[in-house]
Amino acid sequence: MPREVEPSVNEKAFVLRALEENTRLDGRDFEDFRPLSLSFGEEYGSADVKLGKTRVIAKASAEVTKPFPDRPFDGIFNIATELSPMASPAFEVGRPTEQEVILSRILEKAVRRSQALDTESLCIIAGQKCWNLRVDVHVVDYDGGLTDAACIAVVAALRHFRRPDVAVEGEKVTVFGLTERVPVPLSLLHHPICVTFSFFHGGNTVLIDATLQEEQVREGELIITLNRQGEVCQMAKLGGVPVDALTLLKCANATLGKVRDIDSLITRQLEADTRERNSSGQTVELSAENER
User: Fold this and answer.
1) Degrees (nearest 5) of the Cα angle 59, 194, 48?
2) Which pTM was predicted?
3) Alpha-carbon distance values, 36 to 5, 76, 158, 287 (Å)
4) What is the C-alpha to C-alpha distance for residues 12 and 216, in angstroms, rounded to an integer?
5) Rounded to an integer, what distance in angstroms lies between the CA atom of residue 275 and that of residue 237?
Protein backbone atom coordinates (compact mmCIF):
# COMPACT_ATOMS: atom_id res chain seq x y z
CA MET A 1 0.00 0.00 0.00
CA PRO A 2 1.45 3.45 -0.92
CA ARG A 3 2.71 5.52 1.98
CA GLU A 4 3.92 9.05 2.53
CA VAL A 5 7.69 9.35 2.61
CA GLU A 6 8.72 9.28 6.27
CA PRO A 7 11.13 11.97 7.49
CA SER A 8 14.59 10.80 8.42
CA VAL A 9 15.84 10.58 12.01
CA ASN A 10 17.83 13.78 11.53
CA GLU A 11 14.81 15.63 10.10
CA LYS A 12 12.64 14.58 13.04
CA ALA A 13 15.28 15.66 15.53
CA PHE A 14 15.72 18.98 13.72
CA VAL A 15 11.99 19.80 13.81
CA LEU A 16 11.62 18.83 17.48
CA ARG A 17 14.74 20.74 18.51
CA ALA A 18 13.46 23.83 16.68
CA LEU A 19 10.14 23.58 18.52
CA GLU A 20 11.99 23.34 21.83
CA GLU A 21 13.56 26.69 20.94
CA ASN A 22 10.08 28.15 20.11
CA THR A 23 10.83 28.21 16.40
CA ARG A 24 8.85 26.81 13.47
CA LEU A 25 10.59 26.03 10.19
CA ASP A 26 8.40 28.47 8.23
CA GLY A 27 8.85 31.28 10.77
CA ARG A 28 5.28 31.34 12.07
CA ASP A 29 4.26 31.71 15.69
CA PHE A 30 2.74 28.65 17.36
CA GLU A 31 -0.80 30.09 17.07
CA ASP A 32 -0.59 31.34 13.47
CA PHE A 33 -2.29 29.89 10.41
CA ARG A 34 -0.49 29.71 7.10
CA PRO A 35 -1.69 32.16 4.41
CA LEU A 36 -5.35 31.37 3.69
CA SER A 37 -6.99 32.24 0.38
CA LEU A 38 -10.53 31.56 -0.80
CA SER A 39 -12.03 31.94 -4.27
CA PHE A 40 -15.34 30.96 -5.86
CA GLY A 41 -16.03 29.52 -9.30
CA GLU A 42 -18.42 30.77 -11.94
CA GLU A 43 -21.05 28.24 -10.87
CA TYR A 44 -22.77 28.61 -7.52
CA GLY A 45 -21.43 26.31 -4.82
CA SER A 46 -17.83 25.98 -6.02
CA ALA A 47 -15.17 26.97 -3.45
CA ASP A 48 -11.39 26.76 -3.81
CA VAL A 49 -9.41 26.96 -0.55
CA LYS A 50 -5.63 27.26 -0.30
CA LEU A 51 -4.05 26.88 3.14
CA GLY A 52 -0.32 27.21 2.59
CA LYS A 53 0.49 24.51 0.04
CA THR A 54 -2.66 22.53 0.86
CA ARG A 55 -5.45 23.03 -1.66
CA VAL A 56 -9.03 21.74 -1.38
CA ILE A 57 -11.92 22.27 -3.80
CA ALA A 58 -15.53 21.76 -2.67
CA LYS A 59 -18.47 21.60 -5.09
CA ALA A 60 -22.10 21.63 -3.96
CA SER A 61 -24.88 20.25 -6.15
CA ALA A 62 -28.56 19.44 -5.71
CA GLU A 63 -31.15 17.28 -7.42
CA VAL A 64 -34.80 16.46 -6.75
CA THR A 65 -35.37 13.03 -5.21
CA LYS A 66 -37.64 11.16 -2.79
CA PRO A 67 -37.03 11.68 0.96
CA PHE A 68 -36.27 8.86 3.34
CA PRO A 69 -39.43 7.13 4.64
CA ASP A 70 -38.52 7.77 8.29
CA ARG A 71 -37.90 11.52 7.64
CA PRO A 72 -40.63 12.62 5.22
CA PHE A 73 -40.31 16.33 6.08
CA ASP A 74 -36.51 16.53 5.65
CA GLY A 75 -34.30 16.79 2.61
CA ILE A 76 -31.09 14.80 2.14
CA PHE A 77 -27.62 16.19 2.79
CA ASN A 78 -24.36 14.29 2.20
CA ILE A 79 -20.64 15.11 2.15
CA ALA A 80 -18.32 13.01 -0.03
CA THR A 81 -14.51 13.21 0.20
CA GLU A 82 -11.98 12.24 -2.45
CA LEU A 83 -8.26 12.06 -1.74
CA SER A 84 -6.57 11.46 -5.08
CA PRO A 85 -2.97 10.29 -5.67
CA MET A 86 -2.36 13.69 -7.31
CA ALA A 87 -2.41 15.26 -3.83
CA SER A 88 -0.09 12.76 -2.16
CA PRO A 89 1.45 9.35 -2.90
CA ALA A 90 -0.16 8.10 0.32
CA PHE A 91 -3.63 8.35 -1.25
CA GLU A 92 -4.98 5.68 -3.58
CA VAL A 93 -8.22 5.61 -5.57
CA GLY A 94 -10.74 3.09 -4.27
CA ARG A 95 -8.78 2.31 -1.09
CA PRO A 96 -9.64 4.83 1.64
CA THR A 97 -6.81 5.48 4.04
CA GLU A 98 -7.26 5.99 7.77
CA GLN A 99 -6.85 9.72 7.22
CA GLU A 100 -9.67 9.80 4.66
CA VAL A 101 -11.99 7.92 7.04
CA ILE A 102 -11.18 10.36 9.87
CA LEU A 103 -11.71 13.35 7.56
CA SER A 104 -15.12 12.06 6.49
CA ARG A 105 -16.21 11.47 10.08
CA ILE A 106 -14.99 14.87 11.28
CA LEU A 107 -16.81 16.71 8.47
CA GLU A 108 -19.90 14.62 9.13
CA LYS A 109 -19.96 15.56 12.81
CA ALA A 110 -18.85 19.15 12.31
CA VAL A 111 -21.28 20.15 9.54
CA ARG A 112 -24.09 17.64 9.13
CA ARG A 113 -24.69 16.38 12.68
CA SER A 114 -24.31 19.87 14.15
CA GLN A 115 -27.38 20.77 12.06
CA ALA A 116 -25.61 23.65 10.35
CA LEU A 117 -28.01 23.15 7.44
CA ASP A 118 -31.77 23.27 7.98
CA THR A 119 -32.73 20.06 6.15
CA GLU A 120 -36.45 20.82 6.51
CA SER A 121 -35.93 23.74 4.11
CA LEU A 122 -34.94 21.17 1.46
CA CYS A 123 -38.39 19.56 1.56
CA ILE A 124 -40.62 20.25 -1.48
CA ILE A 125 -43.60 17.90 -0.93
CA ALA A 126 -43.64 15.95 2.34
CA GLY A 127 -42.93 12.28 1.78
CA GLN A 128 -42.74 12.66 -2.01
CA LYS A 129 -40.13 15.11 -3.23
CA CYS A 130 -37.16 16.89 -1.67
CA TRP A 131 -33.74 18.24 -2.56
CA ASN A 132 -30.78 15.88 -2.32
CA LEU A 133 -27.85 18.20 -1.51
CA ARG A 134 -24.34 16.83 -1.98
CA VAL A 135 -20.96 18.43 -1.35
CA ASP A 136 -17.97 16.79 -3.05
CA VAL A 137 -14.60 17.54 -1.44
CA HIS A 138 -11.57 17.11 -3.71
CA VAL A 139 -8.05 17.34 -2.25
CA VAL A 140 -5.81 18.75 -4.97
CA ASP A 141 -2.60 19.23 -2.95
CA TYR A 142 -1.69 18.10 0.55
CA ASP A 143 0.82 19.65 2.92
CA GLY A 144 -0.90 19.31 6.31
CA GLY A 145 -3.97 21.03 7.76
CA LEU A 146 -6.32 18.95 5.64
CA THR A 147 -9.27 18.90 8.06
CA ASP A 148 -9.23 22.68 8.55
CA ALA A 149 -9.00 23.42 4.82
CA ALA A 150 -11.73 20.89 3.95
CA CYS A 151 -14.13 22.26 6.57
CA ILE A 152 -13.59 25.84 5.35
CA ALA A 153 -14.19 24.70 1.76
CA VAL A 154 -17.43 22.87 2.66
CA VAL A 155 -18.87 25.79 4.64
CA ALA A 156 -17.87 28.30 1.95
CA ALA A 157 -19.43 26.13 -0.78
CA LEU A 158 -22.69 25.83 1.18
CA ARG A 159 -22.85 29.59 1.79
CA HIS A 160 -22.15 30.30 -1.88
CA PHE A 161 -24.53 27.68 -3.30
CA ARG A 162 -27.91 28.60 -4.78
CA ARG A 163 -30.49 25.94 -5.62
CA PRO A 164 -33.06 26.37 -8.41
CA ASP A 165 -36.41 27.83 -7.42
CA VAL A 166 -39.46 25.57 -7.51
CA ALA A 167 -43.21 26.01 -7.81
CA VAL A 168 -45.71 23.50 -6.40
CA GLU A 169 -49.25 23.13 -7.73
CA GLY A 170 -50.96 20.25 -6.00
CA GLU A 171 -48.58 17.34 -6.58
CA LYS A 172 -46.95 18.92 -9.63
CA VAL A 173 -43.48 20.36 -9.08
CA THR A 174 -41.89 22.77 -11.54
CA VAL A 175 -38.15 23.38 -11.27
CA PHE A 176 -37.07 26.68 -12.83
CA GLY A 177 -33.71 27.13 -14.50
CA LEU A 178 -31.18 29.67 -13.31
CA THR A 179 -32.15 31.94 -16.23
CA GLU A 180 -35.86 31.75 -15.41
CA ARG A 181 -35.85 32.67 -11.73
CA VAL A 182 -33.30 33.91 -9.24
CA PRO A 183 -31.85 30.83 -7.47
CA VAL A 184 -32.50 30.38 -3.75
CA PRO A 185 -29.70 30.34 -1.11
CA LEU A 186 -29.56 27.56 1.46
CA SER A 187 -30.94 27.98 4.96
CA LEU A 188 -27.84 27.75 7.16
CA LEU A 189 -28.36 27.98 10.92
CA HIS A 190 -24.67 28.50 11.80
CA HIS A 191 -21.22 28.22 10.23
CA PRO A 192 -18.94 25.61 11.91
CA ILE A 193 -15.17 25.94 11.39
CA CYS A 194 -12.51 23.38 12.39
CA VAL A 195 -9.18 24.28 14.00
CA THR A 196 -6.56 21.57 14.53
CA PHE A 197 -3.97 21.60 17.33
CA SER A 198 -0.85 19.41 17.27
CA PHE A 199 0.98 18.29 20.43
CA PHE A 200 4.71 17.70 20.90
CA HIS A 201 7.04 16.95 23.82
CA GLY A 202 4.41 15.15 25.89
CA GLY A 203 1.78 17.81 25.26
CA ASN A 204 3.91 20.72 26.47
CA THR A 205 4.24 22.22 22.97
CA VAL A 206 1.01 23.06 21.09
CA LEU A 207 0.81 24.22 17.48
CA ILE A 208 -2.01 25.44 15.25
CA ASP A 209 -2.13 24.44 11.57
CA ALA A 210 0.83 22.06 11.44
CA THR A 211 2.54 21.42 8.12
CA LEU A 212 2.93 17.89 6.80
CA GLN A 213 6.48 17.71 8.18
CA GLU A 214 5.26 18.78 11.62
CA GLU A 215 2.32 16.35 11.47
CA GLN A 216 4.69 13.45 10.85
CA VAL A 217 6.52 14.00 14.14
CA ARG A 218 3.64 15.08 16.40
CA GLU A 219 2.45 12.93 19.29
CA GLY A 220 -1.25 13.76 19.11
CA GLU A 221 -3.84 16.14 17.72
CA LEU A 222 -7.01 17.86 18.84
CA ILE A 223 -9.67 19.07 16.40
CA ILE A 224 -12.13 21.63 17.80
CA THR A 225 -15.09 22.86 15.78
CA LEU A 226 -16.85 26.06 16.85
CA ASN A 227 -19.16 28.55 15.22
CA ARG A 228 -18.96 32.33 15.43
CA GLN A 229 -21.17 32.33 18.56
CA GLY A 230 -18.67 30.13 20.42
CA GLU A 231 -20.86 27.03 20.44
CA VAL A 232 -18.96 23.73 20.37
CA CYS A 233 -20.03 21.66 17.36
CA GLN A 234 -17.61 18.77 17.85
CA MET A 235 -14.32 17.93 19.50
CA ALA A 236 -12.04 15.06 18.51
CA LYS A 237 -8.87 14.00 20.34
CA LEU A 238 -6.56 11.81 18.24
CA GLY A 239 -3.25 10.33 19.39
CA GLY A 240 -2.07 8.95 22.69
CA VAL A 241 -0.58 12.01 24.38
CA PRO A 242 -2.78 13.20 27.30
CA VAL A 243 -4.17 16.75 27.38
CA ASP A 244 -5.05 18.41 30.68
CA ALA A 245 -8.16 20.51 31.18
CA LEU A 246 -6.30 23.83 31.29
CA THR A 247 -4.63 23.19 27.92
CA LEU A 248 -7.98 22.16 26.48
CA LEU A 249 -9.55 25.41 27.68
CA LYS A 250 -6.71 27.47 26.19
CA CYS A 251 -7.13 25.67 22.87
CA ALA A 252 -10.88 26.36 22.88
CA ASN A 253 -10.31 30.07 23.56
CA ALA A 254 -7.74 30.28 20.77
CA THR A 255 -10.14 28.46 18.43
CA LEU A 256 -12.88 31.06 18.90
CA GLY A 257 -10.66 33.90 17.68
CA LYS A 258 -9.50 31.91 14.65
CA VAL A 259 -13.08 30.87 13.79
CA ARG A 260 -14.27 34.48 13.83
CA ASP A 261 -11.38 35.56 11.61
CA ILE A 262 -12.05 32.79 9.09
CA ASP A 263 -15.80 33.42 9.13
CA SER A 264 -15.15 37.12 8.41
CA LEU A 265 -12.86 36.14 5.51
CA ILE A 266 -15.57 33.94 3.98
CA THR A 267 -18.11 36.75 4.37
CA ARG A 268 -15.81 39.27 2.67
CA GLN A 269 -15.14 36.91 -0.24
CA LEU A 270 -18.87 36.22 -0.65
CA GLU A 271 -19.60 39.94 -0.74
CA ALA A 272 -16.83 40.46 -3.31
CA ASP A 273 -18.24 37.64 -5.44
CA THR A 274 -21.74 39.17 -5.23
CA ARG A 275 -20.41 42.57 -6.31
CA GLU A 276 -18.60 40.98 -9.23
CA ARG A 277 -21.73 39.17 -10.36
CA ASN A 278 -23.78 42.37 -10.01
CA SER A 279 -21.27 44.36 -12.04
CA SER A 280 -21.51 41.78 -14.83
CA GLY A 281 -25.29 42.28 -14.87
CA GLN A 282 -26.09 38.62 -14.19
CA THR A 283 -28.10 39.12 -10.99
CA VAL A 284 -29.83 42.27 -12.29
CA GLU A 285 -30.87 40.43 -15.44
CA LEU A 286 -32.32 37.55 -13.42
CA SER A 287 -34.24 39.97 -11.16
CA ALA A 288 -35.76 41.69 -14.16
CA GLU A 289 -36.78 38.29 -15.51
CA ASN A 290 -38.59 37.53 -12.24
CA GLU A 291 -40.43 40.87 -12.29
CA ARG A 292 -41.72 40.19 -15.77
Assistant:
1) 30
2) 0.92
3) 26, 31, 18, 34
4) 8
5) 41
